[in-house]
Fold:
Amino acid sequence: MSGWVLVAAAAALAVVLVVGLVLAIVRLRRSRATAAGGLTPVPSAPDPGPEGTRRDLRPVGPQRPGDAVTGVLPRDLAGPPGGLALLQLSSQFCADCRASRAVLTDVAGEHPGLTVREVDVAMRPELVRLLGIRRTPTTLVVDPAGVELARHVGVPRRADLLGSLAPWRRTG
Structure:
C-alpha cells in the first residue's frame, strides 16, 4: 500500500509542477505582449530621438488630469501638407492590426491627400502614455500640423472612418 501512496504523491507533485510551469509561461507571454502592445511603456534610456520628435510632443489647449493629450504629434507622424494622415498605432502581436490596415489602405486609396502611416508602439513607447493609447489598433486622423482630429479604437468600420473624415475632406 505504501508503494501506491508514493506513486500518488509523485504524480500529484508532477501535476503541480506542470501547472506551475504553464502558469509561469502564460504570465511571461502576457507581460511581453503587454509591453509590446504598449499598455505599459517599456523602460528605455532617455533618447531625444530624431529632429522634430520628442520636443514636439506638447499639448494644445488646456488638459484635465487623466485626459489623453490631443496635441501636436512629431513631424514624422503629422499629415502631409494639404492633406490628412490616418495614423495606425499597432503592435507586433496585434491580430486586428492587419484588418485595420486593410480598411485604412482601402479608404486612403479612394481619397487623394489621405495618407496611411503605421507606428509600432513598442518602437515609440512615449506615444502610448502621451496619447492615452489603451489598445491596438488605434487609428488617429491627423492634420498637417500634427493635431489629432478623430480617433478610432479597434478595427474601424469603413462607414465610421468616412464619417469622421467628412468634415475635413475637400469637396468639389
